[in-house]
Amino acid sequence: MSANMASSSAGGPGSGDAAAPRRNSKRPKYSRFTQQELPACKPILTPRWVISAFLLVGVVFIPIGVISLFASQDVVEIIDRYDSACIPKNFANDKVKYIQSPGKKPPCHRVLNVTKHMKQPIYVYYQLDNFYQNHRRYVKSRNDKQLRDRSSENDISGCKPEDSNSRGVIVPCGLIAWSLFNDTYDFSLHNQRLDVNKRGISWKSDRDHKFGKDVFPKNFQSGGLIGGGNLTYNVSLNKQEDLIVWMRTAALPTFRKLYGKIEVDLQKGDVINVTLGNHYNTYSFNGKKKLVLSTTSWLGGKNDFLGIAYLTVGGLCIFLALSFTIIYLIKPRQLGDPTYLSWNRGPGGR
């Protein structure tokens, strides 16, 4: 008995060590990358480097700003606000009643004077002020599946309150489509009609991927309250570009949307007669409506902000470079001078 116990006690430690699991260390494998020992560039910002950097930014930004401003100044714009001018005098104090009254309204005639040569294509925009297309409920009031696929015609989730009426589901549903802009513009020059090309005014990606070629309007603007323009029932949604342009909601309360393109040059001194159909209700929320004719440059439309921003930043950098240069010349200091340390400034050397 004692021998067996002795042998078992003698073999116990050895057998226990063999059966015990090996402890894995959590220490990561050594590498210069994980230990942050790779070569690194640690530039010292000397006065010369700082002055040179500010000077370089100023020298680069100022010419870009000047070029951007010149490009913006080359854009010719004609802007005509007509929302108040196209209201009859007897409705001047009750514009909402006029715009909501049933029946056909008389056309409004406006005159646009061309002050500079306008090279084709001339883009025709309508501009709305104080119209919040970015409101959360307004932006969400649509159904992209319904717009894209005919098999999802009955999918009206998210479209309330303009999802259906007594005739059935509405295609396209939602508040965005329901409030489609419907003012019209007809232009004439020298008693001859100026054609407005309304094809290709929307994004190609929207026509190809967001609006189906087999989706047609159904029960649209057939309820009790009419929100805006109507659609052609026998034309698919991907060809109704006024709707496609309107459905791309704006981020700001003042925005422009493309109405069409005039594809002839306009000369300085030309007088354009506009026959305008004033149908869209912006009077209920004190909105403004403007007709805009504009050319473009290589930089886009008229926008002075980009040039002014470049000039401002460039001028500020030049000013800082000159200021630092004067300070460096008048009162230079040795780089790395320990006398400027806080603990060397006190009376006790702290």
How is this structure best described in words?
The protein has 350 residues and is of the alpha+beta class. It is built from 9 helices and 10 strands. β4 and β5 (168-169) form a beta hairpin. The longest helix has 27 residues, at 47-73.
List strands and helices in order, with pairings.
Layout: H1 2-19, H2 47-73, E1 77-81, H3 95-100, E2 108-113, E3 122-129, H4 136-140, H5 144-148, E4 164-165, E5 168-169, H6 175-178, E6 184-189, E7 192-194, H7 204-210, H8 241-247, E8 255-262, E9 271-277, E10 288-294, H9 305-330
Antiparallel strand pairs: 1-10, 2-9, 3-8, 3-10, 4-5, 6-7, 6-9
- What's the mean pLDDT score? 88
The quaternary structure here is single chain
Strand content is 15-25%
Structural class: alpha+beta
Principal-axis shape:
extended
Please tell me how large the radius of gyration is.
36 Å
Distance between the ends: 79 Å
- Listing every helix as H and every strand as E from the N terminus to the C terminus, the arrangement reads HHEHEEHHEEHEEHHEEEH
Helix percent reads 25-40%
Catalogue the unreliable spans: 1-16
* Major sheet description: 4 strands, antiparallel
Beta strand count? 10
Name the strands of the widest sheet in spatial order: 1-10-3-8
> Number of helical segments?
9
